[in-house]
Amino acid sequence: MKNLFTEKAKKTSVFLVVLFSFVIGSYNRVNAQTTLAAGDIAFSAYNSEATQNDSFAFMLLKNIAANTEIVITDGAWSDANNYFKINSGTYTDWLMVWKATSAMNVGDQVQIWNPVASTNGVTFPAVSAGSITAGRMINLPTSGDQLFIIQNPTIDSTTNFTISGGTVICGIHTNYVAGATNASNWDDGQYSAGNQNISELPPGLTTGTNCVLFNYIGVGSLNEVDNVRYTCVGNTAALLNDSANWDYDDAAAFSPTLCVNTVTSTTWSGSWSAGVPSSTIDAVIASSTTPGAFTCKDLTINSTFALTLASGVKATIHGNVTNNGNGTSGVGTLNFAGTAQSLSGTAFTHSGVVEIVTGSTLTTNSKLTIASGGSLMHGTGTPNGGGSVSGSVTFQKSIGSTNKGWRMFALPVDALIESFETGINTLCSNHTPSGERNVYYWDATDIGSSTAAGFTQANNTTDDENKAYSIYLDNTSSTIWDFSSTVSISGTPNDGTKTFNLGFTYDPNSTKSLNSERGWNMIPNYFPSNLSVVNLINDANFGTGYKAIHIWNQGAGQMVAMNQSTLVNYNTSGSSVYSTLRQISPFTGFWVKADNSAQSIQLKNAHRTSRTDSLPANTYFKTDFDVFRIEVKDADGNSDQFSTCFTDGATYSFDNELDIYKFKSFSGEVPTLYTKTTDGDMVSLSSMPIAENYNVPVYIESFKDGMAYTVSPITTDYKNYFDVELVDNKTGSKTDLLNNNYTFNFDKNFASARFTLNFNKKSTTSVDELFNQEKMYAYTADGAINVSYSNNNTVANATVEVYNMMGQKLFSQSNVKSGDIVKYNTAANGQVKVYIVKVISNGKAQTIKVVN
Description:
Helix content: under 10%
Radius of gyration: 35 Å
Number of strands: 68
Distance between the termini: 35 Å
Structural class: mainly beta
Mean pLDDT: 82
Low-confidence stretches: 1-30, 566-580, 612-624, 764-773
Shape: elongated
Number of helices: 5
């Protein structure tokens, strides 16, 4: 089919058939568009003074996605026929199709005009934004006419030449029929199939609400007008569809066609006074009810009010912020998207995310505090950030329980540890008596015989944000250790790449003989934002072979360990915790373990994240193996867990990307449960090679001799292919652990493995059934759906298909081998949110829903 905008018009009948075919074909191919309702668009200009000057414009009153498409017509509506009539014999009345070529926002205007003289009566329009995908320039007679915008109509191109159905979005009317034209039904009763300049009012449109009428405009005997332009006093449907807000001229067309914005600000008092603000319009907050997401120039918060932003809601600010009231409320996002921006007025605390985009510098004037749980996203390469901060920011951290014990802290700003005084006693090297000092860092420096210096008292004049600290807090008996539930620190927020060289030294308190006792380093999350464990571990500059991090859980008195194969929290009764612990929060110190000398890791802005993101399928949570977990617990609820899993590729020695080292409890109240590899290393997660039977030794350590403990299974992520027997190696008793708990008394003198876990394949389950299954995973990342397929048959290949929710096949790739990752780019599909992924292999199909 030839392009109608470059091909000269042929005979009228041929042109009509081709044009209708083009319109229908093009229109029906559109997907991923924004669904519009009456009033979501309004006309903003209409010039009909001469052919060369014919033009009109419309304004968006709703944000729309790329590919959103509408039909524009000057066809005449007939109440009796229930359709728009288009003249099939001439070019006088016609239609065009407009499509958004990118996302557009409330307040954006689109101008359409006649740029050249007509050819055989046909002109092809020009457009200021988006594109005209079909149709011709509509002739706007000076005697008066009407225009309508419709979404998803049905076009009859064979018989009646009509438009029906769909959603009529808006209309504009400039005609006048004496004794008939009125606001309620326009040219009431005057419809004529031979005169498309007379129209009744379509259902769903109300004059002054979502369409505008021009007649009886009060200038002499003038009852119709040739040229009208909105005065741009706001961007609401009520304002645009009130003819009192328009200028008119019956002699000369308005130039420019687009109205010039005269609104400088709009006030939120439960609704916007002059329409939704934009990057050139200031916003004033005069109500604490939430305005939802919006974009503005300057933002002012009036006295006694707060800007309320719920989770996932963003306020994009291109100018400055003045807080004369109560600041912000909620955990939404403040996005600074201008250039030189500043904060003034009353200092305020934001509980959500602050984003400073590339090209912007935010001068804080010490007015900003980010509450515990919030994040500051700034610095080159930071996701959703990229800009810079000038001035001090205060960051808060909720400690939680006030029970005595160690907490592992990091500093998110450029500061000395002694500055960390607000709400907490940091008793560093300058404090006397020395026995009360409570701030330490881990020094992995070799002091001889590959032994680390270990925990070292912090120096108040030299130790800063480049170290992680363990601070002992106790409010149980003396006010000297008292602290509040929230602490804070102020300063210039950290950003940029930070390299930490790792020591490969032994814990000075260990036996200095096992790999599990060597190479530990305590690292700070020195960013003022969450740090993604996924991004950190999978970065090429995470230079250890052991791909895991460990975080101290103060409440449980245990470590939380995360690695590339599974996320394990030893005090969650086996439930998954990756939804809350896949990030390292600000103020947090964590542990990594070198497995050789001269290794290092890097923290980068690219690792930062302000929210909980989707997890890639094969990254630190259960992949294609089944985890069996047991818990030991005393009567007071102190507990620890041990896990084992069965997967192809594992060995009986330590596997860097599968096993997790045991990091013993720091608390005398909490027991420690682990097994040992064939190398003698202590592990809390032991991955085992595929076999039909296993015998796993399990050790327990406790500071409480004679304490009664109960062993119980945690099987929420275990498919029960094995019978599991727990053998007490001291007493000889045996327990069917899948069906019964076991209680025993700890004996400090029994140094061997207290238990043995015997795994025996159920007689009804074959090894092939257990392990040789096709597996598929699907997840979104970097604007694409990623599909991973695996099986134990290296010959069998699969076909990967992607469908939208209407069942249309969007993508297909065959001959996918086990272990391959297939990517389908979703960026080109606009606002499509949900996909169905199907993997077909060996005559079987697996499907999964993916939310983009």
